[in-house]
Write a structure and sequence with these properties.
The chain is α/β, with parallel strands linked by helices. It has three domains: 122 residues, 3-Layer(aba) Sandwich (Rossmann fold); 150 residues, GAF domain (Beta-Lactamase, 2-Layer Sandwich); 151 residues, Reverse transcriptase/Diguanylate cyclase domain (Alpha-Beta Plaits), CATH 3.30.70.270. It has 14 helices and 15 strands. The strands form three sheets. It has a five-stranded parallel beta sheet with strand order 2-1-3-4-5. Strands 7-6-10-9-8 form a five-stranded antiparallel beta sheet, sandwiched between helices. β4, α2 and β5 form a beta-alpha-beta unit. α4 packs antiparallel against α5, α5 runs antiparallel to α9 and α12 crosses α13. The longest helix is centred in the middle third of the chain and has 32 residues. About 3% of the residues have low confidence.
Length: 464
C-alpha cells in the first residue's frame, strides 16, 4: 500500500479518493516543524494555485525531507503549467473532472516523477520512471484534450505537454489552412517562438510542409543534408535549426496539422521519441478537430449568416452579462443603434443580391471602425448595434461619428461597377444614464436614431 501525505488539511478530502493500492493521510498545511516519521509516506501532495510560492514548496519539503513532493492542480491552462514548472515539484497531478484524480493516475505520476537522491538509510519505494511518466502525461493529454472545447487552449496544452516529455529548444503546432494551402502557427514555445508565429509556410514547403502534404512523420537529425529543409525560415527568425522531429495530426483520415520539435537537447531524435509523439498526437488530433467543429457550430448559432457579425440573440445575452459587470464595478456602457439611409433604393434599383452585398460591406466598415473590445451585431434588416464596454456617451459619440463618416464616404458595390452612396442614422444610449436593462438601452438608442431619421438623416443623437 502506498501512503501519501496531503499537506492541505481537509480541503481535498472530497476530491482525493483512496484506492486498492493508495491511501491518503491529511496533515494540514505545511508548517515549520517536520512530520513525525516521514519514512511511512511514499510522497507528499500539495494543492497548487496561483498563490502557491517557492517558500511554501520549501516548507513542504522540510516537513517531509527525502520524500517526493507533488502538486495537485485543477484544470490548468498553458500559463498555469509554465508557472508550476518554476516551483520545481517532483511531479504534478492534474484534475479535470469531478472524479479526478483517479488513484491510478496519482500512482503513475508518482512513479514517473523526479525523485530526490536516495539518502543513507532511506528505504522508500523506487520505481522505473520512464514508462510511468509517459503513461501519466499521456493520460493528462487525453483528458485535457477531451475536456476543453476551445481549439486554441487544447493546442497550447498539447504543446506544453510535449515540451515536458522531450527536452528541446523549440516546440510548435501548425494547423493546415486548406483554403490558402498554408500552415499556420497556432502555438510556438521556446526560442524565437514569437518570430516563428508570423510565418506561414506553404503546404509542401520545408519539413513541416512535407509532413502536412504526405501525412507521414519525419526525423531529420542533420537539416543540412536534407533537401526538404527550408533555410529561409531560420533567416527570418534568426534561429539555427539543427534537427527536426515532425508528426502529422491526422483526424478522420485527414491531416489537419503538424507537430514540430526542433533541436533535441542532449542528443539526436530517436524512433522512440517519434513513437511517443505519435502516441500523443493521435487522440489529440481528433480532440482538436472536435473542438474546432464545436466552435464552428457554436459560431453559427450566434452569428449572422450574411455579415458574419453577431446576431441579435447573442447581442441580448452579451448585453445582459455586461450590464451586470457594469453594475458591480460602477462603470458605464454605451450602445450605438444605426439604421442605413437609402438602403431600400439599392434593393429596388439593383436587386436583392446588391442589397446583400451592401450589408456585407457595411459589416466590414463597422468592424474596421470599432475597438477590439467592442461588440458588433446585425440587429435585423439594415439595422446594426455596437456595444461599447466601459464607454460613456461622450466616447460613444466619437466612435459613432467615425462610423458615420466611413459609411458616408464609402462607394458601395464598386467592384460591380455601381459605386452607390448611402448614409446611416445613429442613436446612442448609455448605462446607467438612460436605461438599466438590455431592452431599455436598445429601445432608447433606437428612439434617438429615429429622431435623426425624422429630422434629416445621416446624423447622430444621444438618448434623453
Amino acid at each position: 500500500m502506498t501512503r501519501i501525505a496531503v499537506l492541505a488539511g481537509a480541503t481535498l478530502k472530497s476530491r482525493l479518493k483512496a484506492g486498492r493500492r493508495l491511501e491518503y493521510e491529511f496533515l494540514g498545511a505545511p508548517g515549520k516543524a517536520a512530520v513525525a516519521n516521514p519514512a511511512r509516506f511514499a510522497a507528499a501532495l500539495l494543492p497548487v494555485s496561483p498563490s502557491t510560492s517557492k517558500p511554501l514548496v520549501a516548507a513542504a519539503r522540510r516537513a517531509l525531507p527525502g520524500r517526493p513532493l507533488g502538486g495537485l492542480v485543477v484544470r490548468p491552462d498553458e500559463k498555469a503549467l509554465r508557472r508550476i514548472a518554476k516551483l520545481e515539484l517532483d511531479f504534478v497531478v492534474e484534475a479535470w473532472g469531478a472524479s479526478d484524480p483517479a488513484p491510478e493516475a496519482v500512482l503513475a505520476h508518482l512513479n514517473g516523477g523526479r525523485r530526490p537522491a536516495r539518502r543513507s538509510g532511506d528505504s522508500g519505494p523506487r520505481a522505473p520512471q520512464t514508462s510511468a511518466r509517459r503513461l501519466a502525461i499521456l493520460t493528462d493529454v487525453v483528458k485535457t484534450a477531451n475536456s476543453i472545447l476551445e481549439p486554441r487552449k487544447v493546442i497550447e496544452l498539447v504543446v506544453e505537454k510535449i515540451r515536458q516529455l522531450i527536452p528541446s529548444e523549440a516546440w510548435s503546432l501548425l494547423m493546415v489552412d486548406e483554403e490558402k494551402q498554408e500552415l499556420v502557427f497556432e502555438a510556438a514555445l521556446g526560442a524565437k517562438g514569437k518570430e516563428a508565429a508570423a510565418i506561414r509556410p506553404k503546404i509542401g514547403e520545408g519539413v513541416a510542409g512535407w509532413v502536412a502534404e504526405t501525412g507521414k512523420p519525419a526525423i531529420v537529425n542533420d537539416v543540412k543534408r536534407d533537401p526538404r529543409f527550408a533555410p529561409h525560415v531560420d533567416a527570418k527568425t534568426s534561429f539555427e535549426t539543427r534537427s527536426i522531429l515532425c508528426a502529422p495530426l491526422v483526424s478522420r483520415g485527414r491531416t489537419i496539422g503538424v507537430l514540430e520539435i526542433l533541436n533535441k537537447r542532449g542528443g539526436s531524435f530517436s524512433k522512440t521519441d517519434l513513437e511517443l509523439v505519435l502516441t500523443l498526437v493521435e487522440p489529440c488530433a481528433i480532440a482538436i478537430e472536435n473542438a474546432i467543429l464545436f466552435q464552428r457550430t457554436e459560431q453559427l448559432t450566434i452569428t449572422d449568416d450574411l455579415t458574419r457579425l453577431f446576431n441579435s440573440r447573442y447581442l441580448n445575452l452579451y448585453l445582459g452579462r455586461e450590464i451586470k459587470r457594469c453594475k458591480r464595478h460602477g462603470i458605464p456602457l454605451s450602445v450605438i443603434f444605426l439604421d442605413l439611409d437609402g438602403f431600400k433604393g439599392i434593393n429596388d434599383q439593383y436587386g436583392h443580391l446588391a442589397g446583400s452585398g451592401t450589408l456585407t460591406e457595411v459589416g466590414g466598415i463597422l468592424a474596421l471602425g470599432v475597438r477590439e473590445s467592442d461588440i458588433l451585431a446585425r440587429y435585423g434588416g439594415d439595422e446594426f448595434v455596437v456595444v461599447l464596454p466601459e464607454t460613456p456617451a461622450s466616447g460613444a459619440l466619437v466612435i459613432a461619428e467615425r462610423l458615420r463618416r466611413a459609411i458616408e464616404e464609402h462607394k458601395f458595390l464598386e467592384p460591380q461597377g455601381i459605386a452607390a452612396r448611402i448614409s446611416a442614422s445613429f442613436g446612442i444610449a448609455t448605462y446607467p444614464d438612460h436605461a438599466l436593462s438590455p431592452e431599455g438601452l436598445i429601445q432608447k438608442a433606437d428612439q434617438a436614431m429615429y429622431r435623426v431619421k425624422e429630422r434629416d438623416k445621416n446624423g447622430i443623437e444621444v438618448a434623453v
